Amino acid sequence: MPITDPIYRSTFPPSQFPAQDEHPSPNSVIPTAPYKHDPTNLDVFQLEHRPVKMQKRDDAWICPVSSKASQSKKSVKDMVQPIVEMMQLGCHRPDGKNPISLATADPTMPHLSPCTKAMEAVVQASMYKPHSAAYTHASGTPEARRAIAMHHSFPERPLSPDHVIVTNGCSGALELALSSLLDPGTTVLVPQPGFPLYEEIATSLGAHVVHYRLDPTKGWECDLDHLHELMLSEAETVRALVVNNPSSHGSVFSKQHLERLVNFAFQHRLPIVSDEVYGSMTFGSNKYHPLAQVAAWQGRHVPVITTSGISKQFMVPGWRIGWVTFHDNVYGSLRQVEEGAHRLAQTLHGVSRLTQAAIPTLLSATTPGLADWKEKHRVALERQGMLLCSSLNDCFCLKVGPPQGSMYALASLFCERLDDSIQNDMEFALRLVQEENVFVLPGSTFGAPGTVRVAFSASEETLELASKRIADFCRRHAKHRVAPTRVLGV
């Protein structure tokens, strides 16, 4: 596993890297072989920390940590650390089972090539536009903000570039949006299960997080009854409702369900923070409906803050380009929040001007070949999702619906059908790594105990191999003898 700096190891190595000296020098650079992406390798949480030796001295002192840093919630990485350590040890197993990670989606797999139009736009900007190396506005380049505004404009609710801020990935957009809304002691409603970053950001700001349920019997739709119940006790402190569609566990909301969410927000006078990073990555009859447009269709004066980016939809997560758009109502309810967000953006000093050059190309409906590229990758992901979900459904202790969108699916786990060594989803994931070197994400880490999340961004060959190992594992741990099942492609 190549090293990217003296402290951490990563699966994204450059052509050369510093040796493990305490202070890297030109003489500590070790050449490596050209990097080849191995889809069976562990592409998540691949960090190896070297502990610092502590010494007791009479003149020693401790630097105080900020309250924001100390009150940040424990991350998913910490929660699954035992599984990560087990998988790191299994990189060179005597049984020859290479590690396979289904825990997180990697859009940079070889068969999911980045959009060439994006790469060409960046190259052209660097070679033919001298100003690409210059400073730019903290809220983004005019060209990028104009393209984003056009992309998120609707006849019922047009958007100007002034209402756009370019950020460091969609995660940066979420942090900026929530930082502009929340104060210590205030409350935000977030989905459960959901993206853990919502809670991590909110708690770091000193805000309270209240989870609202998603209903697995209705395709993980938001439980509106539960939301109304929560507002009976939390109404005075709630500042915002967070919605994720398409979601990080694979659900896609219908237009009718989004309309009900808008009605809820209107009734309780809440702005909606809509995380739409997966955008049009939907399958089958499931369609992507921008929440700001749904609110405009409804005629409801509900302010919507949309966060999105190019990481997932265009297979360039390392470029860290996202944005936040402010869709205000006729009353200007978001005016102060938006002004505050622009002020906060000044502290970040802007996003790379060079990578912003790709945004107008990627968001233009007239870019030659772009629509074909998106459809090709969408079809590939749908096929991979169908393959994995069909195989998992052949396992007697797992049940998952057809993939709806994004790159993930959430499978229900029936531990009562397994032997006593597996009592919950954490134990299932840990033993699966120990015995089969396959990494799935336990649902307990993001508020969905009794489930496991799987990503289907890997190649079909890798998914078939992972499915076979999971089937073997489940059969081996069956409480009652189970006949072997056929795994697709095996």
Can you describe this structure?
Its cofactor is pyridoxal 5'-phosphate. The chain is α/β, with parallel strands linked by helices and 490 residues long. It has 2 domains: 81-113 and 370-476, Aspartate Aminotransferase, domain 1 (Alpha-Beta Complex), CATH 3.90.1150.10; 135-362, Type I PLP-dependent aspartate aminotransferase-like (Major domain) (Aspartate Aminotransferase, domain 2). Helices cover 34% and strands 14% of the residues. Helix 6 packs across helix 11 (335-346) and helix 14 (370-393) runs parallel beside helix 16. The longest helix is centred in the C-terminal third of the chain and has 24 residues, at 370-393. Residues 1-35 and 39-47 have low confidence and may be disordered.
Name the descriptors.
eight-stranded mixed sheet, globular, 16 strands, Aspartate Aminotransferase, domain 1, Aspartate Aminotransferase, domain 2, 14% strand, single chain, four-stranded antiparallel sheet, 2 domains
